[in-house]
């Protein structure tokens, strides 16, 4: 919704550390910068979801050192490191992949009660194993059960509506 990528970055400035902004802005063009922005955003969001807090968390407390800079589509990476309050967090692993040219996925794997992650099997990823499955809408709703009986009149009414709203004249009341 911003008028430009630099304006969008200005609005989002407080969500990233200076080091993260340096990496984002080091990309060779605005679209690559936006791509790196969203990669960092996915990482931050994965951590917040893993610890169960919302976006009220001060995002400058967490800083990501992404590695490698470019992700190959379909390959899973775990090299990115996180700092929390300036301290390297060894107990957290971030698995990242690029699903396609427009979608990043980041999963935060961290210390859970009674579970020590260091040197565990959780970190080992078989690069030949399919890590993510792309699902269509039909895949997602295939096992769905309607909560009410189907009403064909409702569907017919829905289908009879115009594609987009027509602006009504202020004189027609």
From TrEMBL:
Keywords: Transferase. Its EC number is 2.7.8.7. Residues 7-107 form the 4'-phosphopantetheinyl transferase domain. It comes from the Eukaryota. GO terms for biological process: lysine biosynthetic process via aminoadipic acid. Belongs to the P-Pant transferase superfamily. AcpS family. This is L-aminoadipate-semialdehyde dehydrogenase-phosphopantetheinyl transferase. It comes from Dryoscopus gambensis.
